[in-house]
Amino acid sequence: MTNTWLITNVRPHAGPRADGCVDVSIAAGRIAAIGPNLPREPGVTVEDGAGALLLPGFVEGHTHLDKTLWGMDWYRNEVGPKLTDRIENERRYRAESGHDAGAQSLALARAFLQAGTTRLRTHVDIDTDAGLRYLDGVLATRDALRDVLDMQIVAFPQSGVLRRPGTDALLARALQAGADVLGALDPALIDGDPVASLNLSFELAQRYDKPIDIHLHEPGELGAFTLGLLLDRVEALGMQGRVVVSHAFCLGALPEPARDALLERLADLRVALLTTAPSSTPVPPLKACLQRGVTLFGGNDGIRDTWTPYGSPDMLERAMLIAMRYGLRRDDDLALAFDCVSSVAAHACGFSEYGLHQGARADLVLVAADTLAHALVARPPRKLVVAHGRIVARDGVCVEDLIEH
């Protein structure tokens, strides 16, 4: 594929020509022009879109590439019901099996690319037993795919920052080694001291000038209390727009007045929420968030690991699950679910130059579907996936020579 080329005869999923066909001119990895009947310059490669639906590359807002067992033999899950059971079971399995975070993260990242994801945020365990071994593996994957996949790495303390001495020093090393974001976990339930835990996390984030993405599983009033403490620090330290709260189950279980007061603060401080839209756990209310200007986006969480047999690198599937969890049925409401794994996710994670417009990076997906809603429900094989202006998958199969280094 040449550096300048043209995709013809595609239908944008939104906009004034949603019902008509356009062409997309790509040059130097960017969208040079988009519109009907673009000129065919001599010598320029032309790819016929054959009337396919044109989508932007998908965004995975929250996954754990380092943990996955993708492509491996089936893992028999007999873990106990508590969060700490899952944490300790995973630590034991990874230590005993020699789980290779580099090879496994590469396998799942390639599967994401094949299904149309071109930007991705992954949490990586920083562990006092394994040190930075898992981070090193995912850093190698990020480097191997750097030309076709934008990957943000969150340095994630899976056991909290206080319970295992030395975790804070390892997190500092991880941020220096290339992690983009500081992670955190349940300051009250896991660390047992939300004030000390949050103080340590925010001090680290400020010292290394990194944003924060915190897992907050804490339920009801306890979660609301922790969330309030977190928002106090965002406000006091001027970290507006630099914090994501993942899961935030408490917001799905609070009385509306208490919930809405927190939503108002979240919107005012530009703190975004990430949901995986689990089927059996309270979730932040999508439409209440939209009404108040709170950014809510989506992700898978773990995919085929010791925690869960579920998950898929297909973000159209995740968008459909988000739509189902929130009871979305109208075509325009299904578009809101797609926003959670595309434009809203890109904004929340800070991925720039995103979208289907002139000057945006050329991250494109073609599918055989009538409409966006149809694409989410049917999830057809990707006819073409373009990342950074290069074809990386065709008819559901990776183009090997473009992502091997």
UniProtKB/TrEMBL annotation:
Q: Which UniProt keywords apply?
A: Hydrolase
Q: Which Gene3D superfamilies match?
A: Metal-dependent hydrolases, Urease, subunit C, domain 1
Report the EC number(s), separated by commas if there are several: 3.5.4.42
One GO term in the molecular function aspect is: N-isopropylammelide isopropylaminohydrolase activity
InterPro entries per the UniProt record, alphabetical: Amidohydro_3, Metal-dep_hydrolase_composite, Metal_Hydrolase, Metallo-hydrolase_Enzymes
Record's SUPFAM superfamilies? Composite domain of metallo-dependent hydrolases, Metallo-dependent hydrolases
Record's protein name = N-isopropylammelide isopropyl amidohydrolase
Q: What is the organism field in this record?
A: Paraburkholderia metrosideri
